[in-house]
Amino acid sequence: MKRTLSILFTAAFLIGPGASQAAEEWGIDGEKKARFEAKVVDVLCELTGDCPADCGSGKRQLGLLKDDGTLILAVKNFDIFAGAADDLKGFCNKRIVADGLLINNPKMPLFALQYKKLAPDGKWSRANQFGKEWSKANGGKKAGQWFKNDPRIKKAIAEKGVFGIPGLKPKK
Amino acid sequence: MKKLLSALTVLAVAFFTVSGAHAAAAGKRVTVTGEIVDTWCYVTEIMYGLGTAHHQCAVWCAIGGIPVSVLGEDGNVYVVLKVEEDGTNVANPRIINIQTHKVTVDGDLYERDGVKYLIVTQVVDDKGIVNLTHEEYGIQPFGK
User: Fold this and answer.
1) How do residues B25-69 score in pLDDT, each as one tens digit?
2) Cβ atoms of residues A163 and A171 within 8 Å
3) What residue spans define the domains of chain B?
4) What is the CATH number of domain B24-137?
5) Cβ of B66 and A150 within 8 Å?
6) What three-state secondary structure class fits A158?
């Protein structure tokens, strides 16, 4: 549990605004810092040819297609409990330099995007677009603990409870 | 004419070999039974990521846009890219509504660079949440 909390909060809170644009280790088994150029693609489009405009405008999972044809699924960003679609949607079908952690896990490979820039010489930005957009959509509330304040989550938990089964409650 | 046809055939093969190397292809029809899980927490094991104990966090992550998967009874992780007619897969309410459920789905499987992607064409069966892990693991990750 200690390791879990360390991973979660290092990513979300402890990296200050002046941090350098270089991947941070999160202490996850199999992780390796990685910086590479790739084209941002809509994964569903890439696999099936079902291609909406603008890679789905943030409603589709996005991947990073390297020059050698390797498709890397961007699973995570720098915000706590959030993915990378909001960070990548603005780069649909463009080449970026991605910086983050490649996690080589026997179950499947994962990529956590931490920083990104338009290739080759764009300006680095932290991969925390989810939080920015969440804050904007929620009256400017700080996104640090967005998951405790999100109306969709509050509604889901109110309806089904923390265990997902109505009426089943934690022991006091 | 024979030479011309031969040359055209060679050119056609070369063209499709290059341009179609990573082009869309048909998936493999599959039926998968398993639990809907949050891909990040389950795969990285940064916390216990299954069943009732992790349900709340799985909802957080799905609404946060982390890919949702089916953990098949075969042990494979199938990343869900589409459920029936809905082509969105980030914070999709349909998927969030069945988070942690045990389901059986028909779909098309695409395997690429170590990831199994699933296009769900039909949710055949939904048994709801049956993996009662909270008594052993409490509420993951913060205990409330």
Assistant:
1) 789 999 999 999 999 999 999 999 999 999 999 999 999 999 999
2) no
3) 24-137
4) 2.40.50
5) no
6) helix
